[in-house]
Task: structure prediction
Amino acid sequence: MTDAADPEPLVLRAAEAGISCVTWQETTRADHDAEYNLRATTLLAGANLATGIAPCLAAHETARGGTVMDETVAWTEPGKPLRRGEAIPFPEPVGSLWARPREATKWRAYAAPVQGEWAGAMARVTSATDDGVITRIVGIADLAPHLEALALAAGVIAVAQAAYPPGLQRADAAAEPFLAAALNAGLDVASYSRREPAS
Result:
């Protein structure tokens, strides 16, 4: 595993040795997929707060059932807090923050700049069920280095348990094992839901 800003040298050495690898940094190089499938090893990229924990929270809530109407993920990043944007309800001690949109393929995504030592992630999933429309919100808040370390460790544990197939993978491809590993390592999740009865 590596939290290096440039994980490429270690990733390539691991591939040559036939060893699975987990990186904190996001990787998008398509040629890794063929390389890793050839050697039957896994590269789990982006095992961090933004592309690891936050998407896994959303995937977990989506798996609870119903027809998904809306999915939103958000996370904090270092920076000067915004004065407007999308309101995101992170748990305390981070609290509600304004966030700006980020590019994503599966859901609406937002990043909220925050100063200080705290960080957070949030997922909000709205689903239509037989009982009405349910919105579930789950979130985490803790010291930033602690959350980032938990994300990387959860990825390592999930890969070691063969939760991911060979090739280039993202954390939410096996959200349940990833979250279980993070929870067992000390991650605490706050949640609440609201229901609009069927008419």
About this structure: The mean pLDDT is 91. Helices lie at 8-17, 31-39, 49-62, 144-160, 175-184. The two ends are 51 Å apart (CA to CA). The chain is about 30% helix and 35% strand.
